[in-house]
Specification:
The chain is an alpha/beta fold. It is about 20% helix and about 25% strand. It contains 7 helices and 12 strands. The protein has helices at about 55-65, 80-85, 110-115, 150-155, 175-180, 195-200, 230-235; strands spanning about 70-75, 95-100, 120, 125, 130-140, 160-170, 185-190, 210-220, 240-250, 250-255, 255, 260-265. The protein starts with about 55 loop residues before the first helix and ends in a 5-residue tail after the last strand.
Length: about 270
C-alpha cells in the first residue's frame, strides 16, 4: 500500500494525499443535528470507580450516540487506540481527522488500527504552518513526544522515560486545514499533544467557535518548556466555554496530580 510520508502545509489541496493509499476524500456530511441533548452527563449504565470517579468514556457514551454524523478530530492519534474507542460510539456516518506527527508512530502503528476511509494526517498541530523540531520520547512510551522540550519534572515523574532523539515535522493550524477542507464545524476534539494545547487553541480561533466539545490534557506543572496552565488555555478559547469535568491522573508530583484532562463544552452552540 502506497502512502505519502510528508506533507507540504503551504500547498494543501486535499487530505487525500495522506489517506494512505485511498484515492478519494470523505466529504463532510451535513451539519450534525442532534435532537435536544438536555445535558452533558455520563451514560446511565456507568459504574462509579472509587478512585477515579467518572472517565471520559463514561461521558462520551452518553453524548456521541446522540449526535448525527459527528465530525471528530483526534490530535495526537498515536496508535489510534483512543480514536477507535471514540468512533465505536459514532455509528456509520462520522467524519474523522486524525493527526500524528511522530514517524515512530506513523504510519506503521496507525495503519495497524486504521480502516482506510479515515483521514490520517502526518503533522503536528500548533499556531503556525510550517516545520518544527519534534522531541521524541522512548523507553517508557513514545506517547510523551512533543513539539516542546521536556523539563526535569517529566523525568522526576517518569524515570524510565527518555528523550534521546528529535526530528523535523510538518506543522499546521487547525484553521488552515478546516478552511482548505471546507470543515465548518467540529463536534468533538480529542487533544493529547503533551504541553502544546495552548498553541493548538491559538491556531484554531475560527473553528473553535463552531466546535461543540473539547477534551484536552493540562498540568499544574510546567512539564514541557513553555507549557501554560489550564486557566490561560481556557481564557484563550473563543466564546463561552464551560468546564464539564476535570479528570486527574493518579501520578503524583509534590503531593498533587502531575497532569490531568478536562472536558469543555461550548455554550454558544445550541444542541
Amino acid at each position: 500500500m502506497a502512502f505519502v510520508s510528508s506533507i507540504k502545509v503551504e500547498h494543501i489541496q486535499s487530505v487525500s494525499w495522506r489517506l494512505l493509499g485511498v484515492g478519494r476524500v470523505l466529504r463532510l456530511p451535513r451539519k450534525a443535528r442532534a435532537k435536544s441533548l438536555v445535558s452533558i452527563r455520563p451514560h446511565k449504565s456507568m459504574k462509579i470507580k472509587k478512585n477515579n470517579g467518572y472517565t471520559i468514556n463514561d461521558y462520551l457514551e452518553g453524548i456521541l450516540p446522540n449526535i448525527k454524523d459527528p465530525v471528530i478530530f483526534e490530535i495526537g492519534a498515536k496508535d489510534f487506540r483512543s480514536g477507535k474507542k471514540i468512533l465505536s460510539l459514532c455509528g456509520e456516518g462520522f467524519t474523522y481527522y486524525g493527526f500524528e506527527p511522530n514517524p515512530v508512530n506513523f504510519p506503521t502503528k496507525v495503519l495497524k488500527h486504521n480502516p482506510p476511509k479515515y483521514n490520517i494526517i502526518q503533522a503536528a498541530i500548533s499556531d503556525f504552518d510550517g516545520k518544527a523540531k519534534f522531541y521524541q520520547s522512548s523507553g517508557l512510551t513514545t506517547g510523551a513526544s512533543s513539539l516542546k522540550e521536556p523539563n526535569q519534572v517529566v523525568f522526576d515523574c517518569w524515570p524510565r522515560l527518555k528523550f534521546d532523539s528529535s526530528v523535523t515535522v510538518d506543522v499546521m493550524r487547525l484553521d488552515t486545514l478546516c478552511e482548505k477542507e471546507g470543515v465548518d464545524h467540529i463536534d468533538f476534539i480529542w487533544a493529547d499533544i503533551q504541553g502544546a494545547e495552548y498553541e493548538m487553541i491559538l491556531g484554531a480561533q475560527e473553528i473553535l467557535k463552531s466546535t461543540k466539545l473539547l477534551y484536552m490534557e493540562y498540568s499544574d506543572f510546567e512539564l514541557y518548556k513553555g507549557q501554560v496552565r489550564l486557566h490561560k488555555m481556557t481564557k484563550a478559547l473563543p466564546g463561552n466555554w464551560r468546564l464539564i469535568h476535570k479528570f486527574q491522573s493518579r501520578r503524583q508530583h509534590k503531593g498533587q496530580a502531575a497532569y490531568g484532562d478536562v472536558l469543555l463544552q461550548n455554550d454558544d452552540i445550541k444542541w
